[in-house]
From TrEMBL:
<dbReference type="InterPro" id="IPR008257">
    <property type="entry name" value="Pept_M19"/>
</dbReference>
<dbReference type="InterPro" id="IPR032466">
    <property type="entry name" value="Metal_Hydrolase"/>
</dbReference>
<protein>
    <submittedName>
        <fullName>Peptidase M19</fullName>
    </submittedName>
</protein>
<dbReference type="GO" id="GO:0070573">
    <property type="term" value="F:metallodipeptidase activity"/>
</dbReference>
<dbReference type="Pfam" id="PF01244">
    <property type="entry name" value="Peptidase_M19"/>
</dbReference>
<feature type="region of interest" description="Disordered">
    <location>
        <begin position="1"/>
        <end position="27"/>
    </location>
</feature>
<dbReference type="GO" id="GO:0006508">
    <property type="term" value="P:proteolysis"/>
</dbReference>
Length: 353
């Protein structure tokens, strides 16, 4: 465990080190805020919406995630230091969604996920439901959810979708196909979303066009994720969401998982916190989550270099006046709610069958 006396890094710029109006903890010292952040995360650990670790490990000749691995941003000791309770392992392809071997490559990465988890049984556990996430946490393991994967992996087949779900896939990104493109969802795309609801695969609309996002929100009976989206009002990145889409996502009880990347949010902790503030204010505290995007090739903001750094971000949010209920939703509660909703829909579909 990291030394809890270590001071949170100082920020620069307007308002640095000053309490915000109405913040009851405005006079807290940075070290005290960090102690409070660790205590809060011990009760409400981080659900990290995106990690590129499976691909990052693919060509390493040797690694030990339980002992610690300097060649990557994520290992078990750093996840424990950062209080990560569950992490979504991306099955995305470096060449993008349009690769010639999308289905085969996704299957290979699912196999890689299982291989890595089986090699680290004391630290990691493969999960597929909200209940299994809780069980993993109670056993002292980090829960690993396979996904998101690109929709191209389906090869336009609902049968392949069902097979991927059987093999563990839990999240699918609805971009990069003819049925989820610039014009939104086609009739087949709508059938994909309905089948995803039925079998418990969550829809991820990060990077999707507005028409696809809007139709998916209207059609899906389970909450929709944006696994790597921040506020376009603050930073005009194509994967970030407009205020209109954030409002719609909040109304549909979806979750916008703000990425810790310099490209999408900015180069410092305060920039990430600005995006979290904005999403909370526009869509509501029930709509905001975290996405480390570690081991994805992204450049991270200062002082958020790896999976151990979440307490520093939570300390900054405490400084800004975020309440414990809001932070518990941000780190853990919102993702658990989405997983439970999907599990409920699966059970309901089984009863109807």
């Amino acid at each position: 465990m990291a030394d809890l006396r270590h001071d949170i890094p100082a920020t620069t710029g307007a308002g640095a080190g000053e309490g915000l109006p109405g913040d009851p903890f405005a006079q807290d010292e940075p070290g005290a805020l960090l102690v409070r952040a660790h205590a809060l995360l011990a009760e409400h650990p981080v659900a990290d919406g995106y990690s590129g670790l499976p691909w990052a490990l693919r060509y390493l000749p040797w690694y030990d995630l339980e002992l610690g691995e300097a060649a990557v941003d994520t290992d078990v000791p750093r996840m424990r230091e950062g209080h990560v309770g569950v992490v979504f392992w991306s099955l995305h392809l470096p060449e993008g969604p349009g690769g010639d071997r999308a289905t085969a490559a996704t299957l290979e990465q699912l196999d890689q996920v299982r291989t890595v988890i089986e090699a680290h049984p004391e630290g990691l556990r493969l999960v597929g439901t909200a209940g299994q996430v809780i069980d993993a946490r109670n056993c002292g393991r980090v829960a690993v959810v396979p996904g998101p994967a690109y929709a191209a992996a389906l090869d336009d087949s609902l049968g392949i979708l069902r097979v991927l779900r059987t093999l563990g896939l839990r999240v699918l990104t609805l971009t990069g196909t003819a049925w989820a493109g610039e014009r939104g969802l086609s009739r087949f795309g709508e059938e994909v979303v309905r089948e995803m609801n039925r079998i418990g695969v969550l829809a991820d609309v990060s990077g999707a066009c507005a028409a696809t996002v809007e139709r998916t929100l209207a059609l899906s009976k389970t909450p929709v994720l944006c696994t790597r989206s921040a506020a376009r009002e603050l930073r005009p990145h194509p994967a970030n969401l407009t205020d209109e889409l954030l409002t719609a996502l909040g109304a549909a009880k979806g979750v916008c998982m703000v990425p810790l990347t310099a490209e999408q949010t900015g180069p410092a902790i305060r920039d990430v916190a600005d995006h979290l503030d904005h999403v909370r204010d526009v869509a509501g505290p029930q709509c905001v989550g975290l996405s480390g995007t570690y081991d994805s090739g992204a450049v991270h903001p200062r002082d958020l270099a790896d999976a151990s750094c979440y307490p520093h971000l939570i300390a900054e949010l405490l400084r800004r006046g975020w309440t414990e209920p809001e932070l518990s939703l941000l780190t853990w509660g919102n993702v658990q709610r989405v997983l439970r909703s999907a599990d409920f829909m699966v059970r309901a579909a089984q009863r109807r069958a």
